[in-house]
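Researcher: First entry.
Model:
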Amino acid sequence: MAYPYNIYIFPVMRSGSRSEVILDIDTVNFHKQRRLDFNKWIYEGVPYISANAEKVLADKVINKGKEHEELHVSDYDMKRVEQEMETISKWVEEGAKEEYVVSGLNGFLRKLLYRELAKKFPHLYSSTKDLERGRKEIILKAVTLEEKKVLQDKKIEEKLEEIRKQSGALRLLRLLVNLKAPIVGHNPIFDLMFIYSHLCNELPNTWEEFKQEIHGLFPVIYDTMLIFGDEKVKKLSSEKQSSALEAMYLFVSKSKELAGISINIEVTTGLESKYLQTEHYHEAGYDSYITGYSFIKLMEYIGKEDFAKYKNQLYVHKLPYNYNLEGKEVLHDSVM
């Protein structure tokens, strides 16, 4: 049973960080020819951040106010905050019955004010309200220390939930990791690097480290590029076959020797007429579908016993060995 999906993802713009989306004109034209919906990609794309970025943001929320950041304060800034503190002191002395609003401060002055408030008025609870054009105001109210802790915990949980919503595609990756199902790709080495660098962390400095990281995420990976080059499969044709995904699928689906391997696939996402009757090469859902189809045909034809040697072996262009995710690489027979 096949569940093909096309999931558009678009990076999250995070406060305090600079991100870039760089478009190569040849790549844009490639996708234009294949009718990529750029509006859907930008306006409706699933957000994502890396696991490392998620941790940094979450730690920042949890430890906010606990940092001992050194603030280099000018006399003018200190005087501005001292004036605000004097007004707040009068409000507290008068009973602090209503909320107190502080506006007109930039981010640096707000941070400085928060520091002074924590020293002098630990019973005051503060929250920040977003206004138009990026402006913010601070809202203060007097509470008991117990009430303050409850309100702070609630605010932390709300901010952590915002981060979880931003993580988007990272949550999907975690589902796949927890599932521990075999991952099948066609020449997927660069896809795996792309996934890791965008949803996990920066790429490690060495191949050995990367192998450990990827193998930890996906214990079982198969590469149909390698499998299609199996000697038993090569003997099915007197001509040299292209190893491109499209060529592999056409060969596997039309080969007389593989016709006896019956696959009756039910496509369950409303794409029956699209994928079962027409070709959509380079569309993610379609490429995944035909990769899975070819994988099943090849596995059945080669035989599960001989097929086992392809587990966690990845093809790399022009190298005299395959990448082995479980151990040391071995040179191909032709170069030994």
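Researcher: Second entry.
Model:
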Amino acid sequence: MGASAAAGAARPRVLAIGLLADELEAIRPLVGSLREVSELGDVHPEEYDVLIHTDANFNDGNAFPRRIAFAEPAVPANGRSNYMYNRIIHGDGMAPDSPTTIETQFTLASHFDVTKEARDLGLTGLVERSCVPAPGATYTGFNASVSPWRDVKALLSERLQRPLTLAAILDSPNEYDPDSAKPLDSAFWLPEIARREITEWIRTAFDYWRAHDPETFPQTAEWRSSAQWGAPSEIEARRELDAFDAEEERRRAEADAARERILDAAASTAEEGDEWRALVSETGDALVSAVRSAFEMLGFSVLDADTLVHHKGKKREDLRVSDGVWTVLVEVKGYTGAAKSNDLQQLAAAATMYGIAEGKPADALWYVVNAFRELDPVQRAEALAGREEDLEAFADSHNGCLIDTRDLFALRQKVALGKLDAAIARDSLKGARARFTADSNAT
């Protein structure tokens, strides 16, 4: 196509660089005229209204007043050492007119924000489905304050303190001659993955520019897909498609709203979760309180032994746990390291004083221990591992039993989830000796 043909072509006159054959065919009905070239130097920019190009850097094609630029693909992580960072090249101390270029983000952000500008333009759905990187995928972006200066309408950015912008509309008024007839310089800067919705982005850009220049971007550019010139079967199919898209958009909005409600509910349960996990994370009074709550949930009656008048100022058991007339003395310990076998002796001494005070021995003694409490419960060593003879002697002398808080947690969890009756759980604890194991005693 020669210069005169380009100048007289139907508008908008679109120049394409780097598009695939199927992309060219998809956009052809949307434009007034279309030409494909391999180099910008092959044409005169003034003969075209829009440049659509791929593998673009930030300022490529600035001679064209309007552009839809799909960023050059991100540099793979294994090419990192050969890639120059924009923030290094154009960081603090550089001249204010240093041109902005794109950078590849290797320390990937986990979350991205669709901006207020995108929402105001009605582009939330389009940005979400075409611009958000796949989890773990490397992506490109630019700093929001750009040079040469442009008004940046960010559409998608990292949720970080100094975010990269991944998609934006960049407008640059004619600073030198505001009365010039030269059209507003405007670019849609999009990630390379946005090409999967290339036709929608072209429609969006044309609608955006039409507000400033209706003659260059007439509504009739898509006349082949308009109802005025369509067959009845096309019109009906398009109506069904529009209805489907509207319903899908409504469904997505409802799903997003429902997910937000569930996220809020999940966040509100965090405090309750910490209280529930105290059984395997805490020590001291907090652990004693958690153990007491667990036994009470299983249906035991629990007394804080420190509240007894004759215990004041003396070291005795922590809890007295009863099931009817059956009573067990409970010592509760939490350790960052291993459990201590001398705790068994302390509990035996408490049992002697109980027998003197009550005139009868306790029915059992329980040593409830939260050892290695700062580790993942799954990775913790067994409490008093290798001290089975001590535990057997504890069982023979006092009907004693060591209860790891992890096993108590598992037993409580089964009851809470309805997988085990509380009475059976109580009986499994009352019948345990030496070492209680939730899986073997409460199945």
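Model: Note on the second entry: The chain has three domains: 3-229, 230-268, 275-441.
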